[in-house]
Amino acid sequence: MNVSLDEHFEKLVKQMLESGEFSSDTEVVQTGLQLLEKHPQKREVLRRDIQEGLASGVGRSFDKSVVEDIKRRGRERLAQEQGQ
Fold first, then answer.
1. From CA 56, how far away is CA 14, in angstroms rounded?
2. E strand or H helix at 8, and its extent?
3. Could you report the average pLDDT of every consecutive run of 10 residues in the chain (84 residues)?
4. Rounded to an integer, what distance in angstroms lies between the CA atom of residue 36 and that of residue 41?
5. What is the phi/psi pair of residue 61, to 5°?
6. Checking phi first, is residue 75 left (phi over 0); if not, alpha (psi -120 to 50) or beta?
7. What is the pLDDT of residue 16?
8. Helix pair 7-19, 25-55: axis angle to 10 deg
9. Contact present, 31 and 22 (Cβ < 8 Å)
10. Domain residue spans in the chain?
11. Which of 27, 59, 79, 80 could pair with 22 in a Cys bridge, judged by C-beta atoms 3.0 to 4.6 Å apart?
12. Whole-prediction pTM value?
């Protein structure tokens, strides 16, 4: 298979080879194709995570009061567990 690249991508491949990270132009192209192959999978995971977040309810601002509330609830929980 022969692939033609425009000037921009030819320069990019040359830069990748010069960096020493890749040993051949084929390796550069294969790595790019592997990333494209994984991209839809990553997008689907991100979509699922976003939906899970939206379904979890209304969020609230995260500031010092939230941190203090988390600490307070954690201390209360710990005290209950130690008291058992």
1. 47
2. helix 7-19
3. 91 95 94 88 89 88 88 94 84
4. 10
5. -60, 145
6. alpha
7. 94
8. 100
9. yes
10. 7-83
11. 27
12. 0.48
